[in-house]
Amino acid sequence: FTPDSSGGGAAFPPELNTGQPTAARVYDVMLNGKDNFAIDRQVAHASLAVMPELKEIAIHNREILHRVVRFLAAEAGITQFLDLGSGLPTARNTHEVAQEVNPDARVVYVDIDPIVLAHGRAILAENGNTTVVTADIRDPQAVLDHPEIQEFIDFGKPMCVMLCGILHHILDDEDPNGIVRTLRDAVPSGSYFFITNFTRLGDASSSVELEKQLLEQLGTGRVRTPAELAAFFDGMELLLPGIVPLPMWRPDRPVVDSTTVGVRFMTGGVAVKR
Ligand code: SAM
Asked: For 21-48, what is the HEC assignment?
């Protein structure tokens, strides 16, 4: 195992490829985590050269996740969270926020990257209401049918399906809209969808440049238009304030300057299936 990994006592899967960057590990670099390799840091630094605000953006993405999970657990009565593309465990994960409100809240973390399970297992071993599954949402039916997910989530009861910062890693020809549709059709009414995505900035070329660099170096990283993002929520009812720059979704504190790239490059929203 490469010496630049923190290890953390986790049993690393043999399929871990330290020569290829992964989205989970590049994002970990953005959040100042330690579970990344030289190749991930290289991609992260190239991305930061194009858009220096990316670290701030990653924090905004974590903060909206906290606000949404807290709102759904505390005010919408949601007790189950299917966190797709959950990423490496970091500060204040979904289960911590949800279980702070309701200790019985159940959380399933799903990620394509086996490093997430390796670290998740170590951290979540003690938490009976939380589990981690390695699966690929590009086959959403397989995710829904996964025995561990079936065992953990009651598909007869409303849940929150979280697609936070993952759909930009699904290319257009991998049918992100179809993935969301399949998930939407599988959950009961009263379920919520929480989606955030890289969003094209009309007036700044850095978003176009970043997409090019990420597609070249990471193989994913689609920056979508507001209309493309809105289409993900088709057939559902968006909660106020709609699809907005992340810091502007029900903020805990006033957003000082809403015009910056750091604020606007990722947008997201929450919708309910009626
Ligand atoms: N959801 C977390 C957040 O918003 O803070 C982490 C987001 S991270 C930017 C995106 C995650 O999606 C990565 O951990 C990556 O491995 C995962 N991912 C990408 N493609 C995936 C797929 N096809 N199936 C499951 N997970 C995927």
From this structure: CCHHHHHHHHCCCCCCCHHHHHHHHHHH
